[in-house]
């Protein structure tokens, strides 16, 4: 009888511990979702409730040591008085998960595009696995003919980790397309803060002034590389000029 009572208490305690863990998990998920929703409102972006699980999973796995950097080779570094002005790099041929966005504001496009890619990274893919974070997440932007403004249509892209390059998991979201990008030479300059139409124009003009031969690069297509998520206040970014093929 005593054994039955002890066994019953054990199962009761085990069950209550599981319930408590589940309750804490739900509270944490709700807290993270609320935070992202408040940040989203600042960018005029609605963060839907179905983002709660991907946000929690990404936050859990957001260990800097586990992020895979996109491999590249440095060809040249241009410095002035000890400050790095820009780097010339070679990026190899690789597969990327890409999504085209066309919201009213650049900030809205990158936030919404990033959320869609988060779902793909967080198990909403044919492998059913968490794919892992690679940095940077890049956004391809285009300029009008007079190079006076950034066009609304952008492409947000996620580099597939090395282990998945041969056979990338397929996205459930039909808006996400797996593309193979050719080997490319870029001229890269870092900058901090928010990325919007104004800051992008400023950084493009600044790098164009610094480069000895900017005409060797594409004049209507540029890349913004983001090393922190779009919700971060003080983002770490780079502007990339693409050398003509």
UniProtKB/TrEMBL annotation:
Superkingdom field: Eukaryota
SUPFAM superfamilies per UniProt: Probable bacterial effector-binding domain
GO molecular function, one term: heme binding
InterPro entries: Reg_factor_effector_dom_sf, SOUL_heme-bd
Amino acid composition bias (Acidic residues), ranges on this chain: 17-29
Record region (Disordered): 1-30
Similarity comment: family membership: Belongs to the HEBP family.
PANTHER family the UniProt entry points to: HEME-BINDING PROTEIN-RELATED (PTHR11220), SOUL PROTEIN (PTHR11220:SF7)
Name of the featured protein: HEBP2 protein
Organism: Nothocercus julius
Gene: Hebp2_1
């Amino acid at each position: 009888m005593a054994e039955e009572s002890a066994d019953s208490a054990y199962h009761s305690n085990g069950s209550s511990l599981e319930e408590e863990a589940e309750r804490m998990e739900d509270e944490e998920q709700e807290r993270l979702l609320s935070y992202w929703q408040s940040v989203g409102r600042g960018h005029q972006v609605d963060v839907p409730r179905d983002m709660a699980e991907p946000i929690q999973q990404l936050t859990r796995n957001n260990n800097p040591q586990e992020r895979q950097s996109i491999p590249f080779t440095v060809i040249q570094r241009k410095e002035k008085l000890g400050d790095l002005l820009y780097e010339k790099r070679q990026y190899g041929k690789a597969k990327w998960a890409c999504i085209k966005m066309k919201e009213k504001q650049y900030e809205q496009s990158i936030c919404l595009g990033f959320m869609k890619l988060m779902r793909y990274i967080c198990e909403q893919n044919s492998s059913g696995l968490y794919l892992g974070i690679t940095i940077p997440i890049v956004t391809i932007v285009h300029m009008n003919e007079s190079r006076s403004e950034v066009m609304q249509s952008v492409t947000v892209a996620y580099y597939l980790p090395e282990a998945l390059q041969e056979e990338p998991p397929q996205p459930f979201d039909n808006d996400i397309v797996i593309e193979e990008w050719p080997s490319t030479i870029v001229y890269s300059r870092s900058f901090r803060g928010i990325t919007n139409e104004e800051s992008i124009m400023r950084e493009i003009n600044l790098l164009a002034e610094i480069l000895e031969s900017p005409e060797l690069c594409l004049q209507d297509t540029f890349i913004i590389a983001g090393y922190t998520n779009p919700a971060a206040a003080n983002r770490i970014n780079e502007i990339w000029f693409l050398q003509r093929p």
